[in-house]
Amino acid sequence: MNTDVSVVVVTYDAMPWIERCLDSVRGYDVIVVDHGSTDGTLPLVRERFPEARVIEQENRGMGSGNNAGMRVAQGRFAFLLNSDAWVVGDAVERLRAHLDSHPRVAVAGPRLTNPDGSLQRSVRGFPTLWRLATEYFYLRKIAPRSSLLNGFYGGGFRYDRTGEVETLYGAALLVRREAADEVGLFDEDFFMFSEETDWTYRFRQAGWAVAFVADAEVVHVGGASHGGSLYVENLRGLLRFFAKHRGAREAERARRLLLASLRLRSLAYRGERGRRYRDGARFLASGDVPALLS
């Protein structure tokens, strides 16, 4: 078994993808942290992957689950892999080689692809008021490849090149344990969404770098574990990031900006999408930022 890299997979009703996920990392030290699955995930893991260590705990969010796995991990590196994702070929070794050859890189992420082979744009920019405006008022549609109008989603980034980035979508991340010990693990106040943004921001503030590795590939289904149903948690994660790193006033401006944009969206869309925007607007209108984060 390769114990230099410990793989952490957080599960919550992870069928039908968990078997393919764990098959793709066989041979590594694998830790599965389950948050109360009732769909047969745990019996399958125990039967098909008896070598995996299983931790069962209350669902306190993705950051909490990853932290639980990293606390018992043995490797110099922790590979955090979503339960609806699987590694292609030797992607983990390619990520590790990048970290070994770049000692100030704390986190490396692969090229994410959809199951049909198309690219998932995983490079992100740290949230600012301007970047929220370009995203939530659809200004990015004017020039989606522009870093000015689509900095939130890494507009203009070349996915055929390896290089340093601000932050990455957290479906598959290889993390240097030394850096995590210095900066600390995930902030568990983030239940789901923005927890990796907060973490990579803290790494960069401490002088570490974050890298995208173009020749490593992971397939990611996306949204399988929550069905895309946690829109309010996404908004809460953004507000928590602003409150923590931009200050109370900036966080309140972000709340008002998001509220205005979702009210406009709720007028423009019907059906499930419109309902999601209305739910988000009601959440944002229900209190100021401290109340929404309490």
Question: What does the model show?
Answer:
The structure is a single chain. The protein has 294 residues and is of the alpha/beta class. It folds into 2 domains: 2-121 and 159-220, Spore Coat Polysaccharide Biosynthesis Protein SpsA, Chain A; 231-293, no CATH class. The protein is built from 11 helices and 12 strands. It has helices at residues 18-23, 41-48, 62-72, 91-101, 129-136, 177-183, 195-205, 231-245, 248-268, 271-285, 289-293; strands at residues 2-11, 28-34, 53-56, 77-81, 85-88, 105-113, 119-120, 123-124, 163-165, 167-168, 172-176, 209-220. Strands 1, 2, 3, 4, 5, 6, 7, 9, 11 and 12 form a 10-stranded mixed β-sheet that branches. It is globular and about 55 Å long. The N and C termini lie far apart (44 Å).
- Rough outline: globular
CATH topology of the largest domain: Spore Coat Polysaccharide Biosynthesis Protein SpsA, Chain A
Share in β-strands: 15-25%
Largest sheet: 10 strands, mixed
The CATH superfamily label of the largest domain reads: Spore Coat Polysaccharide Biosynthesis Protein SpsA, Chain A
